Queue: 3 jobs
Job 1
Amino acid sequence: MASVELDCKGLNCPMPIVRISRAMKELQVGDHLRVEASDPSFQSDIEAWVRKMGHDLKSFEESQGVQKVVLEKRA
Amino acid sequence: MSLTEDEITKLIDRLVEERVSKRLAGVEQDLAALRGMVKQGGGNVPEDRTTLVVFSGELDPLFGAFTIALGSVAMGMEVSMFFTFWGLNALRVSKKYAGKSIGEKMVAAMLPNGPKSVPTSRMNMGGAGPIFFKYLMGQRNVESLPSMIEMAQEMGVRMVACETSMTVMGITREELLPGVEFGGVATYLEDAAKSKVTLFI
């Protein structure tokens, strides 16, 4: 089970989800993608994205303007 | 009249069987009718597709159109974009004067060269607006319009230029981005009719 990191800090909508969707395609089911982002709409967008795509949002943390999420590929 | 336990069981079984089959007949009829309805509507079940009409040719609406297009691809959706009238500015890669009528040459001279030089819909201020906005967008690391267009093409967004508006504006196929398709209203409607999201921008 691989764990890949993706830095989306400084990117604005729609680029974080564009990058995440690209990175997710390279992963296998069960793999984790750890993302850091600073886009103000990131929390709402990543939650909508996982609902639509059927992946899992394992965790969400925010500190000092940086949002850290762990995603698990499901399908 | 007295019945044995066995006979009572059989009688109950028979009565239950009769009632159930009577009820089931109705349910089966309804099911058959529903199946027919689903079959008829089968061709109209929307695809997971976003179809955009891009009519405006300024930086801000174009930015919105390409944000939705890229976002849709990221959400696992198919995307079709139909460029008409001013929206064709987004696809323009060159400007040709040779072989055009005087009217067409005038339109060509007045239209922007392409996505790099489109005006803003408000606060254009004779071209100062776009420079200012592009400076702000760059400073805040917002993706530029030309790079969003390039990404959309890479990510398999279907881009169709409207032939009629090209004729009106005197734009030739050679002036538009390679890989763009050409079509009319039926091409748009075919995709729009099966899309979950359709927008006119």
Note: Chain A touches chain B at residues 10-15, 17-18, 20-21, 49, 52-53 (CB under 8 Å).
Job 2
Amino acid sequence: MNDRRQAGVSNLSRRGFLQVSAAGVAGVTAGSLLSGCAPVAPGAAPAVVSSEPVTIKVMSWWWVEKGSDVALRNLVEKFEAAYPEIKVEEVSFPSNIYEDAQYSQMAAGKLDADVMHTLEGTGIKLIEGGFLEPLNDVGKSAGIWEYDAITKIPPWFWSDRSNFDESPDDSGDLYVLMFNTAQDGLIYNMDIIEQAGASLPETQDEAYELAKELTDRPNQFGWANRHTVPEKAGFFRDMIPWLLGYGGVYADGQMPTVNTDAMINTLAHWRRMYLDCFPQGSDAATFRRMIAEGKVALYTDNNALPPNFFNMNPDSENFIRSAALPWPNRKGASFPSYWAWPADSPPEKKEAARTFLEFWASPDNFKEMTWARKDPPMIPQANTPEYLDSLPWMSGFATTDAVPWLFVMGGFQGHVEEFRTIVVEHASEVVVGTISPEEGAQRAQQGLEVLADQLFG
Amino acid sequence: MALPVAVYLLLVFAYPIAQEIYLSFTRARLLERTPPVWVGLDNYLSLAESAKFWLVIGNTLLYAVAANAIIIVLALGLALLLNQAFHGRKVARVVTSLPWAFPEVAAVLVWSWMYNKDFGVMNVFAGWVPGISENPNWLLDPWTAWFSIVLMTVWKIFPFFSLIILTALQLIDKELYAAAKIDGAGSLQLFRHITLPGIAPTLGIMTLLITIWGFRRFPIIYLLTGGGPGVRTATLVVLTYITAIRSLNIGLGAAMAIVGLILSLLITVLYVFVTRRLGQAQI
């Protein structure tokens, strides 16, 4: 993995981290993007062609995510007041099945949306399947073209994706607009740690020992991460920082690397955490509620999670904090999320959707959404000292050496779903002890090599 | 008159099945632009050589047999009970049919909470069983996961089955029972010589139907365990979905679907054969 790929935010102050908050996606140099791209006035919106009321469908998990739901509905209310000829219809799936829903719709050949949120792995499939419309003009006319919200978007979302190592060319098309990025850190319950008189772990083994010590089932759990097949995407995702911490990746180019020591160590770690620390069988919705209620001591996830806990239980803002990931290389993943513009809407809806996207992306509205969701600021207008000081729980995430998570996938960036299906099939057996970590890793490797043969010949 | 029916059958049944059969002989990946490539029997041969596939076939048969056996026994018992005259019978009939009326996905979500190892109510019942000192890992240990799936399936399906049997019971001529009692027949004899033959055709066709439905039952298994750990609780329809839609291997998934279709057809043929043999034996 080259340096630019994983250039991150290590050694940055909290404020510095927030100022380059697309951190994990760093590595994509912006200069070449910017030449000749003069933005038009912020907030400027094109006229909607039809005079008839048009209803656009906006697909997002925010509709059903506490905190984000209010933020998005407020934005929509403002939008509908500004553009009475356009109505917004909600299309929602919870985040844990959001990608599943998009895959199913892609498989059916039609997306049930005129504007939508998307994530990295699905985004590539959407572009490759011809489902998305370029968003260059929207980013420029909204007035955010020169900001992190654009410049940190990784190369695989630009039209020329022939070489992922190269910076995107501003003559190419951009298929998504980033609305935030999140990066991994260690989230912990300050009260539990202090009451135990413990110090924060700095290695994987220390993390396990501390979590085990703090586990008192069913009243308190030392650690929580996803570990079941129904939460396949989350299971696969939660292992990523640990895999990076042990010095591994899921694939190197077109060669899967899940039989390495790093992956075996990750699987073995998941097994011991399952045995001694996890709330066994609990899904993310359940254990996140437990975290918000102060019943889980430690947890690895990204900086988008604490605001969710605060929405579930406002008191949790007093005890949830973040710290450096508990391994020496401090590597973790970053997870950007995007708006996308489906290509197959009828023309009048497409124009209305464009109007909505430009409205959202105008700096004032972008800032408002950032603050409402407690996101790291992607545009300078949202990056004020008062705002940054209101996020005391954010500092630990700044210590992470963030790697855009799709780089962990090597050449399988467009095949995440197939890849993780195989990995989780075998990892789930390791977790419950029906096979050993070594056997699980070997079986997954064999399955993935067959997949690689099918995909790449 | 026959033309619209023929067109309907062609469009809704024949074409999709023909397309599925064609895909099962190709290497085709969902969401990719390359057209399917004809590979002959490769998909079927790789299934035949796959230990995972045979494990899943075994799971499918185990699930169908175990769940059906319990459903039939419980449904028959409940139908016989509800066929008796007692105060509040109508209310009892409504209440016992509620699980069947409950939306399946919502029911699975409730049951998955009931099966939580630390907080689920099922732990209370497990505590009553001698020898169980720890909460079972209901959905993660392969055997308890199977038990959990079968239990929920039975809860969901048997009320419907019992309503159908109840209907069949009520169609039996009451005079037959009166005459048999005058001849001195006891309860068991009444059941064996009047009740059972009276409901046998209904029992037969319903058993066939729930067997076929069992082969294609998806939400309960997929939402409770996802077929895991590994594929230890996956049935053929779950593996087909994982292969075709999650792993995007539509060619191999189509081959699995065709195997499932053949299995269902075989069971139907077996049912018809056994029914005819029994009918001839009775003549």
Note: Chain B has one domain: 2-282.
Job 3
Amino acid sequence: MQRSLHLSHPPEQGHPSDVLPLIEDILNEMAEAEEWPITLTMRANLILEELVLNTLTHGDTSGLTKIDLELESQDHALTIRLSDDGSPFNPLTDAPAPDVTLPLADRPIGGLGVYLVKTMGEELEYRRENDRNHLKLVVHPE
Amino acid sequence: MEFSHDRSGDTLVVNASGRVDGSNASDFLESLQGMFDPGDQRIILDLGGLEYISSAGLRVLLMAAQNLDKQNKSFSICSLTEAVGDVFRISGFDQIINVFPSVEDAKQG
């Protein structure tokens, strides 16, 4: 099953998180049609939220970033292809990894989002081409 | 998100249900902090009705846990659903916050 979604968010119109219900709806539709395990729906939603909000809030300075999202699922594995025209950002190398073994008092508040994407996503590939970021990853239920 | 709470002696049990994401995480933090009383020594957060949490929601839990820890108060989380438990495990949150199967277990823990 394949679905695509085109997202953009003019900064003068509300908060970038306004696009989140669109992501939730499309995932729920796929999850219902293909009887996804609940952990797959959760992981896919979390990964897409982190990537999309990251791009819409940090990815660009000129104002309007456009994101193209392609979702393809088969046998409870979801392949995500995301491309955007924001500034170059490779989540594989451009974000510091948080130390998730630190005790409570020393845990930094930020940096978790990209870590979760890298941990929950497999077969991650990034390339910068024609002034666009292209990211591919595969999500499994466990 | 929806909240309810139940106070018994110095123990506060907060129920949070629904979804917590980048759109409402700051409301989640405000609601949580608004429920704490200075006299509460033990806070149990029941997430049995929580369907979804992203890193924005995890950040709120981390801030709450760190604040309560600084005040030498006990903080625990209970009744995680399978999907939220999966996120807790991967983020390592189950190593830094006490997680119990049920409210009763949390009260005894």
Note: Chain B has a mean pLDDT of 96.
